[in-house]
């Protein structure tokens, strides 16, 4: 619950809209009370044969309260939803801004799917928190308070005490009891549902193996057991929900019973009139509508608190403080670089040293898991070295402003990401202010201009979600075009040709050589194709440099690189 209140303090508070929504909600409740009270008065007085004028006024009152209730309800829904949606829109932007500086590698074990669930799903849960957990109890409180004061002055103190006692029971005791129980039950349901999904995924994914080993019946039995456990958890949760609703109804009808139990003798003794008792009885029934909302409010409060805890767990993460100095650029130097993902894990990189300047190229090769991608994340500042330094022009990375540091690097990854936007907008990710002439220039350099001119939509052509409307070669060429648009002095080519066919890979390598003549280029690859022209090759094994030199020297040495080279040649035969 503490995370919920902490999160609420970080959000804007449209007090005027909130107060207006509360006022309209209270007027809605008051109109409902007035409707039933006027109806009760009309029915009771009709038996006494009053004048037509009196009955007409009562009928007008019933109509007035009925129309007022509908109008106030509409106004309350409009104002409360508008304020809530504005808060949620702000919350999504606020949460993204808290996540964005963390960079992908600082998010720990949280996957993109879990972050998406925080931004969309958990924020959406908070909608019910504002609309159904906060507003109904506040409305009920003011309605009960108004009714209690009315009863105290016009009837007597004990009906007011009955109503206030019922409210305290339904709005305080019941939510406190339900909130914790509901949250524990929801966690149990979620855990069992995850187990069922895992079991079902295994069963469907490995169906062929199960048929081969004749284990389909056994796995079906395990699936049935998981489904049964989920059903039991859901049944417990539904029983809890039903018990809460039944308790709320019992409180409302209990208040009515106490009122009748104490009021009927007063009517018989002449202290009250039957009209007074009828009005009070139906008014208490109207207040029972608020009591019925309390169990649901408790559930929404528990769900909202759990969602807020997950949101705050992500938003509260902080990156280590870095310097603010502007990096002027210069030679890239890596000195005695070591890195481990955790203190209890073996280092992913150990004692890595090299230097790179503009116009030169270095290739870092090795098998998967050798530490190549880790090196890229360190160079970009996504992670901090455990030991050693990375510097540009003698200025260490940890003393530089991150934006200034990363402005010196352009990255062409194995699987470049493209947004579900136009071609022009995807290119402008590198430089938003780029003109169409500049975009046309980089497409010409990457031999994509003719393709653009053949597209009917031109620059507005959508590349599809994740670049799904492009071929592998087109994605890489556009990634190179985007890197060109950034005009960075150093290029990081992270497995830029992996997954491409041999012919397309050759074309991409030739293109990258052409456009990076005056750049400092770091090739990260486990393929050896196209490395004949690089100035130095560094061979990594288990995070250590085992060989380095030009391609001719390494082949003549017949060491680790030579074995990789021969294995690749044999695979191509």
Q: Considering the protein shown, what is the CATH homologous superfamily of the largest domain?
A: ABC transporter type 1, transmembrane domain
Whole-angstrom Rg: 35 Å
Gap between N and C termini: 64 Å
- Helix/strand/pairing class, anyone? alpha/beta
Strand order of the largest sheet: 6-7-8-3-9-10
Described by strand count, sense and barrel closure, the largest sheet is:
6 strands, mixed
Q: Report the CATH C-level class of the largest domain.
A: Mainly Alpha
| Total helical segments | 17
In terms of quaternary structure, the protein is single chain
Tell the overall outline.
Answer: elongated
CATH topology description of the largest domain: ABC transporter transmembrane region fold
Number of domains: 2
CATH architecture of the largest domain: Up-down Bundle
Relevant terms:
573 residues; alpha/beta; ABC transporter transmembrane region fold; Rossmann fold; six-stranded mixed beta sheet; four-stranded antiparallel beta sheet; 64% helix; 10% strand
Give the topology, please.
Blueprint: H1 2-9, H2 15-46, H3 52-99, H4 112-154, H5 157-205, H6 207-212, H7 216-268, H8 274-315, E1 332-339, E2 349-356, E3 361-365, H9 372-379, E4 387-392, E5 395-396, H10 402-406, E6 409-413, H11 423-427, H12 436-445, H13 449-454, H14 472-486, E7 490-494, H15 502-515, E8 520-525, E9 536-541, E10 544-549, H16 551-557, H17 560-572
Parallel strand pairs: 3-8, 3-9, 6-7, 7-8
Antiparallel strand pairs: 1-2, 1-4, 4-5, 9-10
